[in-house]
Structures are given as C-alpha cells and as structure tokens.
C-alpha cells in the first residue's frame, strides 16, 4: 500500500462525483515557460483544451522507415507471443491490437523519443526533465481493429501504476492516416480539468483484460455527458507524421475500424522525473515493466 495520501480516489465501491483538477496543466513558469518552442498562444490552447495537434510535424518519408518496421512486426510470430504484444479480442486470425514497450524493442523508436523537437516541447509542458513511462503502437487494423472506450489515462496510471500527480503527457504520432472512417483518436476538449473517479475494484492482473477491452476505470455516462456538453469532441485529422500531444487526464477514446485502411498510431508517454511512481493506489501488485517503467527514470537527453 501507499503511505502517500491518495489525492485521486478511484476504483471505488460507490460513485464519487468528479472534482476539479488542482495540478497545473503547463508546469513550467517564467523563463522556462517563455523560452520553450511552444508559443504562449499554444500553451494557452493546451491549458484550455488539454491537447495540441500538429499536422505533418514529421516528414512523411521519415515515417516510411517506421511503417516498414511495423510491417516486419506483423510478420514476426515470436513478437506476437511476447507478453507486451496485445492481440485483438475474439477468435480467428490473431490480429495485433498493441505492442507495448516499443522504445525498448526498437532503436529507431527509442531515438524518436529523444527527438530534440519533441523533447523540448514536452519539457516545456511538464516543467522538468522527463523519462518514458510507457510506449506502445496501437495498430487498429482495417475491418478488425476494435475501439478503445472513453477513459483518462491518468486514472489508470494513478490507480494501477502509482503515478502521484497529473504531470505527464502522451505524444501520439500518426503512422497511418487518421481519417473520418478508420477509428481516429477522439478527445474531449477541457476534460483534463476534472478528475472522474470510477466505480469498481481493480482485479489483480487487470491489464490482461483491460488492454483488450477496458471494463474497470471507465467513467460513468453522467460525467462523460457533462464533459462532452461542455467541450464537445474533437478528432484531430492528419496523415503519417502528424502529432497530437495530450495531457495525461484528457478524456479520449476511439471507435472500431470499419474501413479497409489501418489506423496505426505510435504513443510515447512522458512523465516528469519529479513524478516518479509510487506503489499502485489500487493496492494491487505493480504492473509489468512494459506497461509502467520503474527501472530507469534517468532524464532523456536529445539525440538527432
Ligand atoms: O492501461 C494503460 O496504461 C493503457 N490503457 C489505455 C486504454 N490507454 C493508456 C494505456 O495505453
Ligand atoms: Fe489511453
């Protein structure tokens, strides 16, 4: 259990109403806030919406090499058997849903986590040095890719990984076109400003089910409805190389992919080195390293 006070009670036996956020959204101040690559206008948009999107942030041809690696992974039967590879639910051909710990598997992806352009923005937003908490590729193959229910990543990372405060963010890099019909990432603007406690105890080894279909830690419809009526829903569009930075508590999800086109996105989760994991607040055993890095919190340094 944790000695630290649990400021974000969730996975409860009865409903607790959502409450306003008390952590900053942009953690840098003064010169560190002013001198980073994001303008004051972009910082204010991130504070207001809980995400920023950048079409064609990386050149398309930069993405070709990453896409080629993806194809190789799909053919790699050993990789499909590893614990960090999650297959789509249901029987039949084993479609890959996600590959976790991609920055540990691939030198190319690892270097991308330390791209100077990315790192500078992330350090400005988190106001400190950063490390990778989690990385993954969500494949969402054509016709077979299932959806991801609405959720706050922080609710899971706090409850199941012991992440103390809201001082982390996800970089989603689009590897295949996020169009209207192939289940693009959807976000609720402004939802990062409220913590929505969820009902339901966390079973041991919950991740073995939740990464295929999340049952626990899914917010109630009354809270979701309120957040959507306040902020609507946005699905940043973009081709390979486009980027979405979203705050750890921004409500997001995506539909099933009914099109023939895959919707493969790469996710890097950066955590502040001042927000290191404690014991899981849900009281369970810590999750495996491929989901929550507990071994190496050394600050990332930029590499071209
Ligand atoms: O449990 C987790 O860490 C994962 N679950 C979801 C639905 N999003 C964040 C993360 O990949
Ligand atoms: Fe998520």
TrEMBL record:
InterPro entries: EctD, Phytyl_CoA_dOase-like. Its EC number is 1.14.11.55. It comes from the Bacteria. Keywords: Dioxygenase, Iron, Metal-binding, Oxidoreductase. One of its GO terms (molecular function) is iron ion binding. SUPFAM superfamilies: Clavaminate synthase-like (SSF51197). It holds the Pfam family PhyH. Its cofactor is Fe(2+). It catalyses: L-ectoine + 2-oxoglutarate + O2 = 5-hydroxyectoine + succinate + CO2. The keyword Metal-binding applies. The keyword Zinc-finger does not apply. Involved in the biosynthesis of 5-hydroxyectoine, called compatible solute, which helps organisms to survive extreme osmotic stress by acting as a highly soluble organic osmolyte. Catalyzes the 2-oxoglutarate-dependent selective hydroxylation of L-ectoine to yield (4S,5S)-5-hydroxyectoine. Belongs to the PhyH family. EctD subfamily. PANTHER family: ECTOINE DIOXYGENASE, PHYTANOYL-COA DIOXYGENASE DOMAIN CONTAINING 1. Homodimer. This is Ectoine hydroxylase. It comes from Billgrantia montanilacus. The gene is thpD.
